[in-house]
Amino acid sequence: MSNNDKEFAKIWKIREDVIVAAAKYGKILSYDISFDVKEWNSMLEELKEETKTEIFGYGHIGDGNLHVNIILKEGQ
Predict the structure, then answer these.
(1) Which residues have CB under 8 Å from 29's CB, separation 6+?
(2) Which has the closest alpha carbon to 57: 49, 74, 48?
(3) Quick check: 72 pLDDT over 80?
(4) Is the Cα dihedral 7, 12, 13, 19 positive or negative?
């Protein structure tokens, strides 16, 4: 949580830069999903196993909504 506009802008910039940084590793497939937060670890492991790729999430997990990103390496 930010305490002022400057902090808010700094936090938002980090959030926006996540996908830019990840794109350096391959093509990004991004999904915005809602789920029971308690299921995140098992869901992540299942997705990794199914897709054989790197997966990461960011967003607003506190309300059960997350941006799930799958990194496709060259040839996938």
Answers:
(1) 69, 70, 72
(2) 48
(3) yes
(4) positive
Q: Mapping DSSP to helix (H, G, I), strand (E, B) and coil, where does residue 1 land?
A: coil
User: Residue 30 — φ and ψ, nearest 5°?
Assistant: -120, 135
Distance CA 10, CA 41 (A): 28
User: How is the chain split into domains, by residue range?
Assistant: 5-72
pLDDT beyond 70 at 38: yes
Question: Among 76, 55, 72, 66, which residue's Cα sits nearest to residue 33?
Answer: 66
Output the pTM of the full model. Answer: 0.65
Segment 20-25 shows an average pLDDT of: 89
What average pLDDT does range 32-42 have in this prediction? 81
pLDDT digits (tens, 9 = 90+) for 3-14: 999 999 998 898
Q: Rounded to a whole number, what is the largest CA-CA distance in the chain?
A: 45
Element (H, E) at 68: strand 65-72
